[in-house]
Structure formats: C-alpha cells, structure tokens
Amino acid sequence: MSKSKDNSFRGSKRGRHAQANHDVGDFNCSLKELRSLMELRGPEGIARIQECYGDVEGLCTRLRTSPIHGLGGHADDIARRKEEFGQNVIPPKKPKTFLQLVWEALQDVTLIILEVAAIISLGLSFYRPPDAERENCGKAAGGVEDEGEADAGWIEGAAILLSVVCVVLVTAFNDWSKEKQFRGLQSRIEQEQKFTVVRGGQVVQVHVAEIVVGDVAQVKYGDLLPADGVLIQGNDLKIDESSLTGESDHVKKTLDNDPMLLSGTHVMEGSGKILITAVGVNSQTGIIFTLLGAGEDEDDDEEEKSQDGAGVEMQALNSDDEGEEKKKAHPKKEKSVLQGKLTKLAVQIGKAGLFMSGLTVIILITLFMVDTFWIQGLPWIADCTPIYIQFCVKFFIIGVTVLVVAVPEGLPLAVTISLAYSVKKMMKDNNLVRHLDACETMGNATAICSDKTGTLTMNRMTVVQAYLGDRHYRVVPESDLIPGKVLDLLITGIGVNCAYTSKIMSPEKEGGLPRQVGNKTECALLGFVLELRRDYMTIRNEIPEEKLFKVYTFNSVRKSMSTVLKNADGSYRMFSKGASEILLKKCCKIMTASGEAKVFKPRDRDYVVKNVIEPMASEGLRTICLAYRDFPPVDGEPDWENETDILTGLTCLCVVGIEDPVRPEVPDAIKRCQRAGITVRMVTGDNIDTARAIASKCGIVHPGDDFLCIDGKEFNRRIRNQLGEIEQERIDKIWPKLRVLARSSPTDKHTLVKGIMDSTVLEPRQVVAVTGDGTNDGPALKKADVGFAMGIAGTDVAKEASDIILTDDNFSSIVKAVMWGRNVYDSISKFLQFQLTVNVVAVIVAFTGACITQDSPLKAVQMLWVNLIMDTFASLALATEPPTESLLLRKPYGRNKPLISRTMMKNILGHAVYQLTVIFTLLFTGEQIFDIDSGRYAPLHAPPSEHYTIVFNTFVMMQLFNEINARKIHGERNVFDGIFKNMIFCSIVFGTFVIQIVIVQFGGKPFSCVGLSIDQWLWCVFLGFGCLLWGQVVTTVPTSRLKFLKSAGHGTQQEEIPEDELEEMEDLDEIDHGEMEMRRGQVLWCRGLGRIQTQVCLINSKLHLSLQSSLMNAFQDTLSPYEGLETPESRNSIHNFMTTPEFRIEDSEPQIPLIDDTEGEDDAPTKRNANNNAVDRIIPLYKESPKTGGIHQSAALPPRPGSPLHSLETSL
C-alpha cells in the first residue's frame, strides 16, 4: 500500500485555491470527460488522470473542490452541480397505470368465458322467432305472453357483464394499492440511506440522493458505494466488485495501482476518502441500468427487479447489479411454504370445479333434449333454432357460474391482503419487510441464530474494569493513579487507533447519556479517555487522518487494528488494539506501575489470563488489550506488507473490560420464543466465557440443561473429516444441542445455518432465521429462510442480503415478526375454511338443482355476488385479524403441516351439511312452508319468483353468519372473542348485510329477486343465525373420532409421507378445543368413579380390587387417544442425537481463529486457557456433577448459584 503521506493533502496551495474559487465560473471538466474516465480501470485510469489532470489533486481543482475540506456546501453550488453533472437518482420505472392493471385482470380465463357467454346471451335475447308460435318450440320456451317480460331478456346478460366489471375493478384496485404500498416501502428504505461526506471541513451525513460530483466522501468497511469516485486517500482498502465484474476476488485500491471506485460495489475492508466523479445515470451502474431499462419496456421479467420504486441510486444497485446474484439466490427462497401449499390446493379445487361445471352443462343439455324431443315428441323446427341456442347458452352460463364459484380466485387475493396488511403493521413493530413472503415464512421458524452485540445486548458499551500497571481495577481508575508515561501512550493510542468516524457527541436531551457515533467498542474506549479527564480530539487535531502513515484496519482474520505514525526523527510508532488473548500472545513486554516496561513471559501471560481476563469474561465483559511498539531508525525501514513480523514484540499498555448490558426486554422475548417451540442460538465473535455469561443472562442456556457451548475452532474440528471437508452427519451430531457458538467466523455462521437447514434429523425440516449486521454476514443472511439485518448497526451489504430489517436492532422485534407470520398463516386458514364451505354448498346446490329442476336455483348474477362476498370481502375481513399472544403458545406448523387441518375439515363438512339441508328443504318444500308459488320449472325469461328469492337470501345469510364461525379454526367455542378489535371485519359483515337488503328489495330482474315481507326476512335471518348454533354442535364432536376425515393442502406430496406417520403427525399437531373439553369431562368422570371406588373399598376390599382392575383397564382404553396430549412431543427431545460430551485438549498451534464480524469491527476479546492456545470446551450443564477428576480450574472464582460457573464446566 502506498504510504499515506503521499496521499495526504495538507491544505496545499492548490487545494486552498480550489476552495476559494468555489463559485468561479464553470467547471473545467465536462460530464462526458468524467464518464469516459470512469470507464477505465487500474493503470489506464492512473495514466489518464496523470495525462489530463496531473494527479487527483488536479482533478479536485478542476471540479472546484478541496480534497481536505470538501465542497463549501452552499445550496446554489450544489444546485449548479446537479444541473451540470446530474442528480444521484435513477428514475424509477413507471408504475403500471390503473388501466393496464384492469387489462391484466381481464385476462382471467373464467372471466373471459363468462364475458363471451354473456355477449352471446345478450345478442340472442334480442332475437324474436318470426312466424313460429313459441309453443311449437317446447314447453320451456312458452308461457311468457307478456311482451315487457320478453323484452327484459337482455337484462341477465347485461348483469353478468356488470358483475364481471365489478370483479375486474376490485382486482385491479387491489393490485394498484399493493404496488403503491410496495413503492412506499421502497422509498422508505431509500430515505433511510445516508452517506458520509466532507462539506465545509465538517464530516456530515447526507441522503444518498443529495451526493453531487465534487463531493469528498468517506468510505469505510461495509459501505455500498452510492456513486463513482477516485481515491484521494485510503487505508488498506479492499472492494468487492463482483456485482459489476462477476469476479469474486476482492480488489485492493491504492493511489498507485487502482484508484477507481465504482457505484454498487461493496467495501469489504479498510477505509478511505474518495472524490465523487459520476452520479446517478452517469455512474457505471446507472449506465447499465439505463441500458437495461431501454430494452425492458415490454419485458415483464425485469419488472420484478425494478419494481423497487422511487429510486435513489441504491435502486439501481439493488436491481441490476445483483440481478445475477438474485437470479441465483431466488431459487434458494424456493416458493414460500404457504404459496407452495396454496398453489397446490387451488389447482386441486380448480380441477374439481371444472369437472362439476362440465358435468352440470352436459346434464342440463341432455335433460332439455330428452324432454323437448322425446317426452314432448316435438320435431326440430328451423325457426326455433335460436331459442334452442338460447337455452344452450343459458345452460352454458350456469356451468361457467358453477366454475366461477368453485375456483377460489380469492386465495391469492387473501394472501396478498394478509401479507400487505401485516407488512404495514409490522413497520410499527420495527420490522421493515423487504420481501413479502419472509413475513409468512417467519411464522414457521423453528430456529433463530442471533448475534449477541446490539441484538441481545444494548450495544451501548462502556469500559467498567481495567488492568493497568500490574493492578486490576474493578472500576475505572482516577487518572492520577496511572503513571504519566502510560497515560500519554494510552490517550494517543486510543485517539489515533480508533476510526476517525467514531466519536462521542453531547447528549440530545439535557441530562441524557452522551451519544455514541460509529463503532461502539471504539466509542467505549473514547469514553474511557474522557473518564480519565483527557480529550481525544486534541490528539486527532494534532494528527489528522491524512498524517497516519499506515493503517491495518480491523477484519475478521486479524481481529485487531493497528495504526503506524512516523516520528520526526524517522522512527515509527505503532499502536494496536484487539482481542485480549490474541494480542497478549504478541506482547513481549508489559508496562508496570512505575511506568517502565518489563519482560512479559508466558508464565506472566497465563497469570493475566487466569486472574484478569477470565474473571472479566465470566461477568459477561468483553476484554480488549491495548499495546504499542516502537521501530527505531537504526533497524531501517520495516517491510510493512509482512504483517506477522510487524505485529510481534508489542508492549502491553493495559487490558480493559467493556460492558454491554443485556437489553431488559430480551430474557422475556427469548422465553416466549422457547414457549413457541423456537430454539434460540447465539452465534457471536466474542470469547466463549463472555458469550456463555450473556447467554445465561438472556435465558438461552439454563443451569442443569444438557447443551453445547463451543467456539469456532472446536466447531470446525468436530464437523470436518480428516480431509478437512464438512460432513452433514457430523453437523447433525452437534446442532440439536448447540446453544452458543463463540469466536465464530462468518463462514462458521453460514456453515451452521446451512447445516441446520439441510438436516433431516428432526422432522419437519428446520426453518431458520438469522440476524446479522456485518458485511461478512451476507452469505448466512442470504442462505437462511429469513435474514434479519440490523437497521442501526447493520452495514449496507447486510441490509441488501436480508429479508427483514430490524429498525431498532432489538431481538424482541423478531418475536413480533414470528407472531405476525403465524397470524398470516392462520388468516389464510380462516379464509380457506370459510371459502371452501361456500364452494362445496354452492357447487352442490347448482349441480343438484340443475339436474333435478333443469335450472340452477342460484342464478348467474347471484352466484357472482356470492363470489364477490366470499372472495373479495371475506378475504379482507378474515385476512386483517390482528394477532394475539395465544399464537405463541403453539409449536411452529412446519413445512408439511396441511393448510386445512382435520378440525377445519370437520368444520367445513359440518357446516356444509347444515346449509345443504336448509337449502334443499327450502328448494323442494319452500312453497308449502311459506305458502307461495313454486319457482321450479320456470320457462325461459320467466319473472323472478319469491320462492327462489328466499332460497338465495337464506343462502347469503348463512354465509354471513358462517363468516363469524370462520374466525376460529382450532375448535374454540367463543367465536366472538375479540371481534370488536377488528373494525374492518365488523364493517364488512354489516356492509354486506345492507347491500343484500338492497339487492333483494330493489334488485328486481337483473338479480332475479322479488321484494320479501318482514316475516320472510326474519325467517331467512333466523336460518342464517342457525349457523352459529350449529357451529357449537360441530365443535363438540371430537376430531379424533372422525377417522374418515383427511387433511388437505400438504406442503410435500402426500405420497412421500407414510400413511401411519401422517395420522400420527396430524393427531399430534391438531389443536382441538372441543376434544380438550371432552378430556376434562372424562377426567372429572374418572374422579367421580374414583370416589365411588374408595367408598366401595370401605365396604369390601376384595370387591374393590376387582373393580379397580376392570375400571383401570376400561379407562386406559378410553383415555389412550389423549395420552400424548399433555406431554411435550417426544420428537423435540434431543438426547437421541448426541453422544456423550468428550473432553479433548489440542496442543497444536491453532490457525488464526476467525471471528464473526457481527461483533465485527469491535475487536472482540477472547479467552485462552493456560499454554494451550485453545482448550475448547464442551460444557454439559448437568444437574449432578459428573466425576471429572480434580481439574476444576475455575476454583479461583467461587461459583455462585445462578452464575454460569455454578453449573459444572470442565476446564484445564
């Protein structure tokens, strides 16, 4: 890396001159020139810069900016730059217009068939047979002498067309609002994206859209570059350009080999300053995006990608750079579990509907032909042909209507509404959902792999203990207790060896805590400086970032950060900070109380580890070591690229213990997760003692449990075979018991997630959610079923890879996501239960009615209205039920759980029986009951009858009351529970009722209705209300007794699951409140009998014995189906999968351990025992102590109850 002194600009004449001339004339640089410059790479780019501008400083001068102070930040200057070089915005693709959406909705096949049929019906209704008497065409055709009635024949066709228009408009409106919502969400994501630039000498954060050409931007690890630029100064900067070039290797950026940085690329390491040279559509990404946009207008494919909406530059980055990645990545997201099940179910129902409608048409036509030409014995008259065609069209319309009612086109709508509603509400719960299906997948989650820092803890770090000058201070010492020399080195070291973007700001409110900006671990160290009553800013002003000679930035392999300063005499001094047990191994001296350095032997190091680091870690503190090294001029210039030589022979200044308190709401959230059947695992970069202490504070591990806490090194040793390859069987032995994975690298995290997802040890397959904030968490976030990125601490890269962004970085928000996810699932099931009842009844009524009376009792227009109620309105009403805490009291559904459980199937069939009985009674005996004319066998174009109006009205009333029943799907008794919390539901049911009154009383011919009297209405409503009473009867019947019931809508093919297992699965998972009641009844009955028994016992003990044995046998038989209900499901027990823990010592020198950089940039501490560099332990926390010999090292700290040390650990 070139020495940064060459890169620095200490307010050179040209720089100052440039700033002074901010407002002079125009820029000496054209847009075209800059665009062509950014198309060059590496040496070509350097050559062009030298040839045209001299150097980067020359380019700054041309663009009227200063490499040190940036732009002046005047509004008119910014505006002029936007005008000259463009804005940093890529215009979004135009949303579809409402008319386009209407056109798309019209493409629905069933609707097209209906339209065609309606138009034919319309055309034929105007036709009059010329001379032939209508009677000659058969009985059915005659009978209507009234001219007015005959003229009204067109009404039915017109009404069908009108209903079609209604359905289309509703569908289009839903799509439109969904897209609008999606764009709103996207723009919200984009508004939150800010970037750090230097303006007027101040470091400020501006919205990405506000960045202009000439800005000097600061880039750091984890950033997604928002525009193209040229490097001004960099420290160890490495960029991932795979999104543009497809090359996965990281590209090192320096002034003398490749200073070109491109938008849409990710900073994987280091930091630096760049001069922005191209923004928006002129940046490299923008150019690609524009090209894509040009060829994309008629290509729907891309639409998905660019649906992202109102786009800041990021939109381009999201859409096309990652286009390639996404194409590969989306298959991993398969179809979401729910979509898969629904598609399958919809296809099955559709096939059944098609079959029934075809059958209806064939039977109707056959009956008509038989009746007219055979029974009545009429000849075929040419003039009657149009009338016959009219009959056929009428039959055809009835058939299509049956199909329309049978096909649940409301399903996709219900899913969309439910998801969109949930997403909107989840925003309030701090979950920003980026992919709709993630919300529903979360409901099935069985495992959550969470970070520690910031997610489980508050990410507000403070130094609370220190080991300085041979003394362990339990609280931060006063500055006069520290030797002057040590104090000066400490202050300088912390000041320059923390990123200059990390700083402590004054509190926002009076008396509040100071704000920590930047890396939280560095903020803790800067806070330590302030507590020592010194100011780190004076150091930073003396040594600005440009004067730093060389910086080795933090990364997950080094686990430390070092900064080199060049002194006036030509010598160098390097300050380092990092994970304590790693840096201590590199120290050969340590500062004493007198301020002198003394030799630091391995024996001394063991003492520090055992008496300082371990006690700190066991209290949940993160330990950081601070050290320095001098390079005297006599040794000559060191080889700065050889890191191993540079980072040895350090002198330890101090070890600090940093506290990051557990968030107060986390232990409760974790308890709720565990109750909901979700296993929480902590995957952290911190050392194993700190991790275990925090895990027990959170409730992830409990003393006495049989679980595993291991670190990354031990994890890798256990999952790899002799060849170093990962084996799934080995992972399967570990993950069921694993609760804490410490000192883990991002690769370990990815391996663990993949291992759990691919495992077949537990049925059903695990659904894994992962949280991450570091750039290197990207692969794990993408791999997991649901990836959560941190909104505050997360890097752009992590957010890109995630499905949901936690805007408050809080674990308890994940629990809310689980609740919403489960609610989506239940909402869909409620809707299905309602919809299928209507389907079954409507199809059977239409079919049977048609076969017996040659006409469907429910007319086409009426069916379309019912379809509208049950599809659109019901999906709105049932899909917007708010979630309740009870959702967290059951286990996750899993991938193979059928959508329609046997309890639901019982409800569907039970209600269908009631409704069919009522409808058929009315249909065949209604005229006698109500003393009205029969509506059966009405001729063509006959006026509507009261009889059929009552049938239709009763049918709709039953659906309305059944909608209330459908609110509960697990057999609960109280269907009104919480109904007033859902105003949408109440208003829809009420609204539908009002519209129904209007239709019946004033619908007339188009709806085939006649006004009804009050008592007829009351009867209709009463029969509808019967649904609620019948619901209680259905609930009482225990599901397990109805062996013939089958569930439907499985995730996998039914055949793949053996029959007996399926039965078992269903009985286990089924929640049936009716059954539980019965069980309670049986228990009471047993008790009663038990009492009788004891009395009998007093009379005759022999009799007692025989009675007892027979009673017990009898009861064992009756209770056997319920035995499994109370006990936790046996398959959740993990004991079957683990061998007993082994204790191993590895003497080999470990590789540089990797650490997750979620704990990332923070130089996470570690603990190593004694001389063995890593004695990684498996901690079985048994209730009784296994005999492990006398090697209990933690004896130094008396174990106290409740502490992680209280449970037995075996250390060496």
What does this structure look like?
- By secondary structure, the protein is an alpha+beta fold.
- It is 48% helix and 12% strand.
- The protein has 41 helices and 26 strands.
- The strands form four sheets. Strands 10, 11, 14, 15, 16, 17, 18, 19 and 20 form a nine-stranded mixed sheet that branches.
- The longest helix is centred in the C-terminal third of the chain and has 43 residues, at 811-853.
- Residues 1-25, 143-149, 295-334, 1052-1069 and 1096-1212 have low confidence and may be disordered.
- It is found in: Cell projection, Cilium, Flagellum membrane; Membrane.
- Catalyzes the hydrolysis of ATP coupled with the transport of calcium.
- It is a multi-pass membrane protein.
- Its EC number is 7.2.2.10.
Descriptive tags:
about 1200 residues, alpha+beta, 26 strands, elongated, disordered N terminus, Calcium-transporting ATPase, ATP binding
| End-to-end gap | 43 Å
How many beta strands in the DSSP annotation?
A: 26
Multimeric state: single chain
**Main sheet record:** 9 strands, mixed
The value of Rg in angstroms is 38 Å
> How would you classify the helix and strand content by structural class?
alpha+beta
Indicate the percent of residues in helices.
40-55%
Q: What portion of the residues fall into strands of 2 or more residues?
A: 5-15%
pLDDT < 50 stretches: 1-25, 143-149, 295-334, 1052-1069, 1096-1212
Principal-axis shape: elongated
Total helices: the number is 41
What is the residue-averaged pLDDT? Answer: 77
